[in-house]
Amino acid sequence: MSYFKVDSIKFEGPQSKNPLAFKHYNKEEVIAGKKMKDHLRFAMSYWHTLTANGSDPFGVGTYVRPWDGLEGMELAKERAKAGFELMQVLGMDYYCFHDIDVAPEGETLQDTFDNLDEMVDCLEKLQKETGIKLLWATSNMFSHPRFVHGAATSCNADVFAYCAAKVKKMLEVAKRLGAENYVFWGGREGYETLLNTDMGLELDNLARFFKMAVDYAKEIGFTGQFLIEPKPKEPTKHQYDFDAATVLAFLRKYDLDKYFKMNIEANHATLAGHTFHHELNTCRINDALGSIDANQGDMLLGWDTDQFPTNVYDSTLAMYEVLKNGGIAPGGLNFDSKLRRGSFELDDLLYGYIAGMDNFAKGLRAAAKLVEDKALDEYVEKRYRSYSEGIGKDIVDGKVGFAELSEYALGHDQIVNESGHQELLETILNDYIYNS
Ligand code: XUL
Ligand code: CO
């Protein structure tokens, strides 16, 4: 251990004032029949943690890192070592990466693949030494200028082919490193103006691309779960994978729904005008909840700020959905979160991850009690009880149509409603958060 000032972050309980200790995350503690680590399946995002430097559209990087000044493969290897050390210090069992996070791009596509192969040897060794696993792999098809008009939705077929080569390679890497999932986030899969865009062809091509990925995974025996990560905008004005409902409609149209689930990111949900809770719920009720990118946005800013998640209200509701889903595996909670530009010291990474992990641990504790006590279920069940008997049951059982319902309504036209008790339920939710 050489990069961080402590060997491990330990659980000290809610009373602890030690900034380098967990107050709520007690990895091996059993909650609702499962260890906390198995409910949460925390993962480190390689890009925000090791590759990012704190630059923004107005200024250069600010992060001070021990690998500053290194270049090429030497830099790549140093970052990998630091990343695995960080995960060990935090007791984190998984990580996620894009191809070009771990290895620099070369002059040619073949050079890029050669660099990647060399780094995959290194990552494989680090995985074996530490027992840390790959939650998901993905391919970056948005940063380089070649993706200016899109990746699988580019107007240029050579770009489509280039992307196919990249994803083919990364599926092989994913298989070799035992990735449990494979993510597609369509960073440039969208448009700036419909004046020059054939949206119908672009969507057909996107579906063709996904089909080829599914076929190739079968061919090489990669059995990880495919995931699509919705986001409504940024970098393009309109992204095709706008939100969970849009992705569901797309998957169903092209008969891809049996192969894909979703990776729901909190900040993407809010950019789409939804809550994180809404997106998770939409996936759960459609059997499409695959994994989570844990972070949060800023209420006052309209872009993807990717902050470490500290909002316990959101983490409680997220874990509530995860528990109701029967768990998140083979997905997990990947911290797609980055430090603020002003948090440039290496140890800020520890503070960021501790904040996020403790926040979700606290959310899990509250959510587990909510589920166990059926604290919200009771109200929901009662609210819909008119569908368990009488005319409501006939509707659910498909026994009546408009004619029967019209006859019924004529005899029952003095409607009586009951309160939804929203404020009471919000108080109950708060009580569970305070007392868990
Ligand atoms: C971008 C984003 C990506 C994906 C992986 O907003 O969330 O980092 O998670 O490409
Ligand atoms: Co993400």
UniProtKB/TrEMBL annotation:
Reactions mediated catalytically: alpha-D-xylose = alpha-D-xylulofuranose
Active site: H98, D101
Residues that coordinate or bind Mg(2+) 2: E265, H268, D304, D306
Gene Ontology MF term list: magnesium ion binding; xylose isomerase activity
EC numbers: 5.3.1.5
GO cellular component: cytoplasm
GO biological process, one term: D-xylose metabolic process
Cofactor: Mg(2+)
Cofactor info, note text: Binds 2 magnesium ions per subunit.
Subunit structure: Homotetramer.
Protein name: Xylose isomerase
Organism from which the protein derives: Vallitalea longa
Source species taxonomy: Bacteria, Bacillati, Bacillota, Clostridia, Lachnospirales
Gene label: xylA
